[in-house]
Amino acid sequence: MAQIAHRRARETRAGGGILSMIAVMALVFGGLFYAYRAFTIGEWNWWDSTFAEQPQQLTIIDRGERIEVAPGDPLFAELTDALNRSISAGYRFTSTGLSDPTWERMERDGVMIEAIYREPVKLRGGVQPTERLLLLLGGENLWAEQALFRSNGDRWDRNPLAVNTVEPVRDVLARYGIGQ
Fold first, then answer.
1. Separation of alpha carbons 132 and 58, rounded Å
2. What is the pLDDT of residue 178?
């Protein structure tokens, strides 16, 4: 009887050792994965895609017509929230650059939202901080839509980020009869 109890205790320790080793390996690999992502992206909370910045100025560009939206305007708050939700829904890098004629056509025929911030804002995923964002919602004769451009000065970065959704912004503009 004592031999059976001794054998069971030894088997339990051996099984527990394997399970402990697997748990430790999972923690080590998980920690290495987390650290690798944190160091390569430069953000410790890389899984959080929330964007909640408040611009100091918003401009709607509707087929060449510029509509300034002041911070006290109800549209400003709704549009800021919609823009933040669109950016928070995710984006990806693209290698699609825009030529000067395409850029001019986009300004003439497109519907866009320009947001200017007091301080450079940080987007997730290793994107450099930026002072201005321009969200292209679409337009006539444009192959690109749902593109997010960045700028730290007078010139826009011609390689946009592709935003996963612009529906929150389109919905707000549609309620105000803009961009139809």
1. 10
2. 86
Cβ–Cβ < 8 Å for 149, 110? no
Largest CA distance in the chain: 92
Q: Angle of helix 74-88 relative to helix 167-175, nearest 10 degrees? A: 160
Lowest-confidence segment of 2-16, 91-105, 153-167 by average pLDDT: 2-16
Structure tokens at 43: 């953000």
Nearest in space to 115 (alpha carbons), one of 91, 96, 94, 136: 136
pTM, two decimal places: 0.72
* Vertex 72: Cα angle to 168 and 165 (nearest 5): 10
Residue 169: φ, ψ to 5°: -70, -45
Please name the helix (run of DSSP H) or strand (run of DSSP E) that holds residue 61, with its range, or none: strand 57-62
- The residues facing 130 across adjacent strands are 121
Q: State the virtual CA torsion across 18, 24, 29, 33 in degrees, nearest 10.
A: 150
Burial of 150 (0-12, 13-18, 19+ CB in 10 A): buried
Distances (CA, A) of 150 to 97, 121, 125, 128, 135: 13, 10, 14, 9, 9
Q: How many CB atoms lie within 10 A of CB 81?
A: 15
